[in-house]
Amino acid sequence: MSERDWYEILGVSPDATHEEIRAAYRRLARRYHPDSAEGGGDPKQFQLVQEAWEVLSDPDRRAAYDQKRRLQRLRRGRRRSMVGARPAVTMPVRYTLVMSPHEAARGGTVEVPVPYLWRCPVCLGSGLVAFEPCSDCDGGGTVKYTAVFTVHVPAGVRHNEILHFRADEPVPAEIMLRVALRGSGGRGYY
What we know:
This protein has 190 residues and is an alpha+beta fold. It has 2 domains: 6-82, DnaJ domain (Helix Hairpins); 93-181, Urease metallochaperone UreE, N-terminal domain (HSP40/DNAj peptide-binding domain, Sandwich). 34% of the residues lie in helices and 26% in strands. It has helices at residues 6-10, 18-32, 43-57, 59-82, 101-106, and strands spanning 93-99, 108-119, 128-129, 132-133, 142-153, 162-167, 173-181. The two termini are 47 Å apart.
């Protein structure tokens, strides 16, 4: 946060009442005031306490500060979760692969679409643009994309055989294909 945490400076919680904030301010002002404290006080700390009081004692300034504080924490939390992040596939992708008996005997390759979530390119994962929810990701910070994987189906696969594939690029994915031979009740991709 670019600003100081005024609640922390006064030693109160963000949901403190006006009376609790005033009591904390008075106690700290007496402790740090250069004229009234023993040993000359602490002018820098007194100035911070004074600034915190000016913001938190005024209902309008406090509301504006609280809103800004919430938005900054939301942004920081989303950025932190995106640092070093990779696109995420949340669950194994399951498909039924319909093949003719001839194709199954030969084997070959098939392209499999895999949906995944990634950081929104407009708001960079914060969910906000100019303090408003991002219209591209609806404020969620992520956008759904589809990666297409080419997987090799071995020769001689049988009806209802399950093939497992793992991939790291372009996104981490686990793909499970159930082979359905035409004429054996297969329905296609699901």
